[in-house]
Every structure is written in C-alpha cells, then in structure tokens.
Design goal:
The chain is of the alpha/beta class. The chain is built from twelve helices and 16 strands. Bound molecules: ligand AOF and zinc ion. Zinc ion binds next to loops.
Length: 356
C-alpha cells in the first residue's frame, strides 16, 4: 500500500478535483504491475495497473488506495475490469465517499472477490484530504496554509524583508505544492510588500493554472502590482467588502481584468470562492491573514517550512492575533508529514485527524 500511495502522488497537479489514486497487482507476494491515475478524465489507477498486468492478474491481489468505483463516469466502472481480470482479492485503503462512484466493495464481494479495507487508511485519507473534504459536503474550499519561517516563527525581518528565509529546495517544494491547488491566496499587505506572482514555476505543470486570490478588505492595493498587471494571463481574484468595489480602485481592478468577489467575512469569502469552483486554496501569508483564518477555524492543513535562523522579536510573526488559551484547552494538530528540504525542515499538520 505504501508503494500504491507513492504512485498515487504522481498524479499531483493533474487530476484534481478527482482523487489521487495508485494501484499495484501482487502475485505470490511480488509486485507484477503498477498503475496510477495520471490525468483528470483519464484511465483510473486500477485500469492502468490491470492492463499492465494483463493475463497475469488472474488469481492475483489488487492493492489500491481507494475503493474501486462502481459507476460509469468519464471512465468505465473499475469493478467490471477487476472482475473480468480474474482478480481474487482486493485490498483498499479507504472507501470511496463519492456517492456516484461508491458501492464497489459490494459489487466485488457479490462476484466472489475478497475485499479488505483499512490498510494505511490514515495516510490515504491525508493524501486525498481535499477530495474527502468536498465529498463530506463542506461548503468552503479545503484550506491549507504554507509558511516559511525562522526558528522563532517570523515570516519577515523587522523591515518586512522575507526574500529568502527558506532555501532553494523549499522553494522548489512550494512550486510543486502550488500545482495541486485550485487557488493560491495572500493577504493585501503581502501583495503590496512582497509583490509576489504566485504562479507555478517548477518542472510540474498543473493541468489548470491555480487562480490567484488576494484578500484585501480595504482594497489597499497597487495597480502596478505583479498580480494585477498579469491578471489577463493568470486569473486573479480580489476579495473585499462590497462597498470597497464602488471606489475608483474597484473599477480600475475590474478594468485590469481582475475578478472582484464581495464578501464581508472570511467565511463568506471562502464560500463565494467555492461557488466559483475553488475546491482547494493554498494561503501563503501574511501573518494577519494566517492568524485570522486560524482564529475562525478555517484552516485544514499547515505546511510549515522552518529555516535555521532567528529573526527576533521585531521580526514579523507568522500568525498574528491568536488568542492565548490555557494549555489544557488548546487543540493539538496532527502531523501528517515531516522531512528535510535541504537545510530547512518541512512539517505538515492537519487540524483534524482522519480515522484509521
Ligand atoms: C479517479 N481516478 O483512479 C479512481 C477514481 O469521472 P470518472 O470516471 O473519472 O470517475 C471519477 C470518480 O471515480 C472519482 O470521484 C472517484 O469516486 C472514483 N475513482 N477516480 O479519478 C481513479 N479510482
Ligand atoms: Zn474507477
């Protein structure tokens, strides 16, 4: 299953809003074929692995990160292919919560195939957290925060300089990470001070370039900002209070090709983004937006890159405005990944823990 999860990850940036799925075919304990879902609308992981196995799939075990689908969608039902291939046993990490596709296990069992769930279920759930979030019927996008900080959790020095806290490996990681999200968000102050482009500039080209979203309640932006100047090439949304769009800046932004989304709160903003097709949002700062999202319990995942330097008390804090609750009542988040990125350290934390 660990191998199947690795394979599933290769679809990152290419398959959303569909799930990342990997599969292997095992015979006599050996991997005889592998497959993964490589492209939205393309062959499912099970079909890819089974066609690679050919006649050797007869009597074999199919290990897959998600329950095989039972529906005719853009692809034929995987259960039919599993049955036709003569597979004897299916080991799946998690059930498919998508009501349209669900029911695969029952169909397989009715055909006399052994079906087992629960192997590396937590890892499989973490891998497809945005897909599972939407399948639960959530009305807002899956929200992840990405922050590069010093050891003392500062995102910029006392003059707001942040280039570069993290090293090149961590910056490559961010470009890879962006490719898997529908939208990349920043606060207005960050858009003004850092003038980021928030585009994907790594080896992985996303199937659809993520939309850029600036949360700027008071519309305190510069028309010369990179995000605004390039709004006709890469879709850009500015979220602000409805009143703000009446101002001259609102009209100028619209004329520059920026999509304006009125919202009076972060909740409203996220719901409006979901209605416009944003299923997952990666927020890259700054500290005020990060703090406000956390305070409102609107963050599902944190990608924290910690670099080996200190910026001191006058450095810009990664999260501002968080309440100081008594230790006994604070919630603990759940690590889903820890690894080195050059000299930096990546820690990925989820707010809620998926069940085993
Ligand atoms: C995938 N890839 O490898 C598997 C999926 O419209 P379709 O035919 O591509 O079906 C999409 C649904 O099929 C998806 O939401 C999930 O429930 C199920 N399984 N989907 O895109 C795969 N195994
Ligand atoms: Zn399928």
């Amino acid at each position: 299953m660990a191998r199947a999860l690795d394979l599933a990850g290769r679809g990152w940036g290419r398959v959303q809003p569909n799930p990342l799925v990997g599969a292997i075919v095992l015979a006599d304990g050996e991997i005889i074929a592998e497959g993964y879902h490589a492209e939205f609308g393309g062959p499912h992981a099970e079909a890819a692995a089974l066609s690679a196995a050919g006649h050797r799939a007869r009597g074999a075990t199919l290990v897959v990160t998600l329950e095989p689908c039972a529906h005719q969608g853009k692809q034929p039902p995987c259960v039919d292919q599993v049955i036709a291939a003569g597979v004897r046993r299916v080991v799946a990490a998690i059930r498919d919560p998508n009501p349209v596709a669900a029911g695969g296990a029952e169909r397989l069992r009715a055909a006399g195939i052994d079906v087992e769930f629960g192997v590396l279920a937590r890892e499989a759930s973490a891998l497809n957290a945005p897909f599972l979030h939407r399948a639960r019927g959530e009305v807002r996008p899956f929200v992840a925060l990405k922050l590069a900080t010093s050891v003392d959790a500062r995102i910029a020095d006392r003059d707001r300089r942040s280039r570069w806290i993290s090293g090149p490996e961590a910056r490559d990681y961010v470009h890879w990470l962006r490719a898997g999200f529908d939208a990349i968000g920043v606060g207005g102050a960050t858009a003004r001070h850092d003038d980021p482009s928030l585009t994907v500039r790594g080896p992985l080209t996303p199937r659809i370039a993520p939309r850029r979203v600036v949360f700027a309640p008071a519309l305190n932006l510069r028309l010369e900002a990179e995000l605004i100047r390039s709004a006709r090439e890469v879709p850009t949304t500015v979220v602000a209070g409805a009143d703000a769009f009446q101002w001259e800046m609102g009209r100028a932004l619209a004329a520059a090709g920026v999509e304006l989304v009125p919202a009076e709160s972060l909740e409203e903003a996220l719901t409006a983004l979901a209605e416009r097709g944003v299923g997952s949002l990666l927020v890259e700062g700054g500290g005020r937006l990060a703090g406000a999202l956390l305070r409102a319990e609107l963050v599902d995942r944190l990608h924290w890159v910690q670099s080996p330097l200190w910026l001191g008390e006058r450095g810009v804090p990664a999260f501002s405005g968080l309440p100081s609750l008594p230790l006994a009542s604070v919630e603990r988040w759940h690590p889903v990944e820890r690894r080195a990125l050059g000299d930096d350290t990546l820690l990925v934390l989820d707010r809620t823990c998926s069940p085993d």
